Amino acid sequence: MCGAFDSAAEGRFLSMIIKMHSRCNINCTYCYMYNLGDDPSASLPKRLNLEAIDAVIASARREFEAGRMGTASFALHGGEPLLVGKTYMRQFLARVRDLAGDLPLKLTMQTNGLLLDDAWCDLMEEYRVSVGISLDLPDQHGRTQRLDFKGRDTYSRVIEAVKRFRERSCFAGVIMVASEFADGAAAVELLCGDLQVPWFDILIPDLTHDHIAGRTDWAETQRRLLAFYTSAFDTWAGKYAETIDCRLFDNLVSLHLGGNSSADAVGTPGFSAVILETDGSVELHDTLRICSGFDRRLFESVSDNVYSDVRDHEKYKQINSGDFPSAEACRNCDVQTLCQGGELAHRYSREKGFSNASVHCQLLYGLISHVGQWVRRELKVETLRRAPTGDFPPAAASVAAA
Question: Are strands 15-19 and 273-276 parallel, antiparallel or unpaired?
């Protein structure tokens, strides 16, 4: 809670996720791009055209000069962004910094870490890019879901990358995806105790109601995920919260204290970020790829008014308005004002669109209640928004899509 990498105090703002490369060098089983949604690798160019960034920066400068933007935020993603190679990346970053001039600009990049070396870190530090590494904890059998294309686990190689580069100034932290078969306390001890990362986040697995339809074990999956998160929170709050930030946990505490959230997982109605694809098109956040039948496309090509165009687009306004009809479970829930339905993609079904409770409703309710109890007990604060009872499910609630 010492000042988050993506601080809840900053509020939500329109940021641009720039797809540097449309391919990846590993094959995560849970990946929303390649294994749960409409795999883009066959239809999109491998690398982003360098000229596409010109329009984005021109638009960002216009927003800044009009007082509608304080800092432009560009997050470099893939696929795996390092697949573009060092020569291309240097050309891209030099172009961005040159065109941006005195425009306040925050550059971040998320990588799986397998290609990272000292030369890459030198390049990131030269152009002031903060680098996050993706890392998952092994399950009870010692395997993660982050495999290469030969079926080999990448865990040990990524651990070595984090250990090697955690002292570099460009290193920002680690993002992990929760696993029902992993130990949450062990995950936090690995990140905070062993690796001593400055920042981390633990993402909730991306699934829609269509993905879990017919699963008789879903309630048990939710119970195990809740056990993972509560043990992770307790370890973080008890030992590391004063010195190491966790985006999800920091935002949950902020919400209980009456503040805001900058995390898409809780406390916000939609997504603040949009995607610049390698073909120059502009789309809503690509987590929505898992929503079969939903059209994410905003514009076929980027323009030098892209920020204002996106903000005025009816689809973007609808996604971020919170106006989707609430499920009965949400209307009757005592943590609804904190949860806000959870991440939008997790509420989706082909039949009812986003008018469902989250597939992770049981997890969210339990975790929000658990954090609220900690806030009251440890921080001695009683000014919560409708303090949750901790009982699940809420009265007359059903998380299943009708």
Answer: parallel
